[in-house]
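To fix ideas, we reproduce below one chain and its tokenised fold.
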Amino acid sequence: MSSLVPYLISVPLGAFSSLIAWYILNHLIKPKIKFSDWISKLYENNVPFYRFKFENNGKRNIVEVEITAKLRIKGLRFTNNWEVIYLPLDNNNIPIIYSIKSKNKILREVPRLELSIIEPRYYKFLSEVIVKRINSGNITLEELFSLGTHAELILIISGFDEISGARKTFCSEPYTLNRIKEGIFENNGLEIKG
């Protein structure tokens, strides 16, 4: 019986220690994405393009990052239904997003929406006029937001915590038409200049 006493103490103590370590790694010192409140609108050859900005202000880096831009439009075909269009980005795979709190600081990420290459599978939701504007490269995000009775854009970032290996997913608050602002982002922040 006395030989069981160390096991009766060490096994629960080890399980409790593991639980504490797991909690610290996954809840206290983890990556955290903060999104800008704005979508930046800029012009290239008099054609508008749009960018969004985010930063990892958590304590650890995120690796093998995938970014998705999901446009939800209510009332496009049926009054109360939401249709979803995934908008292409210029770079939706990023090898690593460094924490802005780390020594190896790298500027925040600023991906660009590529509206002229929306996949044809989404054309069934859209009018011929909109499809022609997409194919000609002249579609604007404002036009897409004005479709249906309500529209919103949600950014989804998914990647792995570089220490624990746990997959983390972060979603922005929905962007609406009034969240588009002309100008470039500040270098060291999430606001738009001007």
